[in-house]
Hints:
By secondary structure, the protein is α+β, with helices and mostly antiparallel strands. It has three domains: about 45 residues, Ribbon (Pemi-like Protein 1, Chain: D), CATH 2.10.260; about 70 residues, Ribosomal Protein S8, Chain: A, domain 1; about 200 residues, Phosphate transport system protein phou homolog 2, domain 2 (Methane Monooxygenase Hydroxylase, Chain G, domain 1), CATH 1.20.58. It is built from ten helices and eight strands. Strands 5-6-8-7 form a four-stranded mixed β-sheet, with helices on one face. A two-stranded antiparallel sheet has the order 1-2. Strands 3-4 form a two-stranded antiparallel ribbon. Strand 3 and strand 4 form a beta hairpin. The radius of gyration is 25 Å and the shape is flat.
Amino acid sequence: MAAEARRPDFRKVQKTGGDSFVVSLPKTWVKDMGLRAKDPVAVTVQPDSSLLIVPRRDLRAASKSEATLEAQGLDKDFLLRHFISYYLAGYDTIRLTLGRGDASLRGFIREGIRRKLVGVEIIEESSGGILTQCLSGYVDLPLKKAFERMAIIAGGMLTDSVAVLQGGGSELAREVIDRDDEVDRFYHFLLRQLNIAVRDRSVIQEIGLASTRDCLGYRLAVKSAERVADHAVAIAGQAESLTTLSEGSVKRVQDMATLSRKVFDSSISSLLRLDGKLAEEAIARTKDVIRMEEKVSGDILAPRMSGAQVASTKLMLESIRRVAEYGSDIAEIAIDLTVAEPQAL
């Protein structure tokens, strides 16, 4: 079946009068799509000048997708992970059935939804369960804008995590860790939009992308940005135990973090603007960060440091380097997407 779908089915363009032209649709495709006479389809011109024809089922009376989760006997973290999985899959409503009715579990799920997800509203709640509705969100918050906001938060987390070395202490470190929840919210929101777009290609342009290839590229870039935030959390944790570093050593670490953030910020801009030159510059700067890590590590590690301090310092510098490397990965995606796709034969 898949092999047959790849073979071209040549059809003649017919003139119907005036300036109108028509091409008949394959009967098997029409039947497979469940279409009837006068059903609307969306026709979209693609970047390679081909036409994409997609059934617009949303213009017909279509039932909303709903998932049900049975909570009885499940660990609360397991339950939240599976709730998020249904959210990412693109379900419109998710019903959580609690059985005996556990108030603490309801509270945990409510808090998890608030901290981790965008566009989820609790529309019903009782002792026996929770019913949530997931809003599409991409009209008010386009994918590229959401990605940009996510990256700005992650970059700020990196800067503040290193500032803990200057005496910001536990309060600033805690603030960095808390902001990771905001990055996760954007991360899950973006994955949901991309999953919906891959399943329904008529959504791709609505979320601000051009093709399914863009969806794959952004899927990888979004994960890299999420990992940057994770490394910022790790840096903040290590920095708490290194507040006795000399002023000169702290300055060296901050300089490295500043360069690493520049790589990350430039890579984000290169992807959003599809700027190949900027992407190449970001990749080249990554090598400077790697060389700086080697030099800074050799300069600030001192014999008087305890084994724990040495380990924390190395882990912190490694995380700063990883931020630049994730930025380099995003820049490579930008370069890939600047290349036009081959024209269909």
